[in-house]
Design a protein that fits this description.
Layout: H1 2-13, H2 16-38, H3 45-54, H4 59-62, H5 64-77, H6 80-85, H7 90-124, H8 132-160, H9 166-190, H10 196-199, H11 203-210, H12 217-244
Helix pairs in contact: 1-7, 2-7, 3-8, 5-7, 5-8, 7-8, 7-12, 8-9, 8-11, 8-12, 11-12
Protein name: ABC transporter permease
Pfam families: ABC2_membrane_4
Transmembrane segments: 16-35, 47-67, 98-126, 138-163, 220-242
């Protein structure tokens, strides 16, 4: 499995698409800081950390292109059989896909955040309002978000084995995370208020709960546990499906 993960990382590290994607997002962060400066907005480093905390949920969608890089080639060329025939078990195949996507995503996060906050320090300075407490709060929420992003990746990998079409996979993934909360709310209103319990354990709901500055430790712990359950459940479901799936 380790060799397959290394091969996946090597393959994607040498793709211009991967580094281009990171470069574009990093450049957008710098541009946003420059626009904030030119717009004479009252912006400081503390405000930047608080703003990024609010949009951590967007990572569920930003990880989609990376997930597609890891899974698209086998779906398109139907080369999974070759991988299995080389001795990679189906369970290890699933774990390798998830782990490779997470590693590539974490590298992207490190580069993008370093560029964004680094340019913010250069442009705005540290400021008197910034403190280690602000940084610690952000880092804790970032770690919880990584667990939730991993949960989203586990679900995405599960979906990717169902669809050979990249377009179909993309629309299903985006629809799942962008519409599920509203659908559950509608069912809660029209059918039964018991559906609110489902809403409370959605990944998107967890991001809504951890983003406010007033989020408590209990909220962060609960979000982490929800993410961990999703990871375990969908990893197992993917393994069970791939084990019985016809590999071409």
């Amino acid at each position: 499995m380790l060799n397959y993960i290394k091969a996946e990382l090597y393959r994607n590290f040498n793709r211009a698409y991967y580094w281009g994607y990171i470069g574009v997002l990093s450049a957008l962060g710098i541009v946003m800081n420059i626009i904030s400066l030119n717009g004479k907005m009252n912006v400081n480093l503390k405000g930047m950390f608080e703003f990024f905390t609010i949009i951590l949920g967007a990572g569920m969608f930003l990880v989609l292109p990376i997930m597609d890089m890891v899974t698209a080639e086998e779906r398109k060329n139907e080369t999974l059989k070759n991988i299995v025939s080389f001795g990679v078990s189906r369970n290890k195949l699933v774990l390798s896909k998830i782990i490779s996507t997470i590693i590539l995503s974490l590298i992207a996060v490190i580069v993008i955040l370093s560029t964004f906050f680094g340019s913010a320090v250069i442009i705005f300075g540290i400021g008197q309002d910034f403190s280690l407490n602000v940084l610690n709060t952000f880092m804790i929420k970032l770690l919880v978000s990584i667990i939730l992003w991993t949960a989203a990746v586990s679900m995405g990998i599960f979906i990717s084995f169902f669809f050979k079409s990249n377009v179909t996979f993309t629309f299903v993934y985006i629809g799942l995370f962008s519409m599920s909360k509203n659908i559950i709310k509608l069912l809660t209103t029209l059918v039964s208020d018991k559906f609110k319990y489902i809403s409370n354990i959605l990944i998107t709901t967890q991001f809504d709960k951890i983003s406010p500055q007033s989020a408590t430790n209990d909220t962060l712990i609960f979000a982490s546990l929800v993410g961990a359950v999703y990871i375990i459940v969908f990893t197992i479901l993917t393994m069970l499906y791939v084990r019985k799936m016809e590999v071409k």
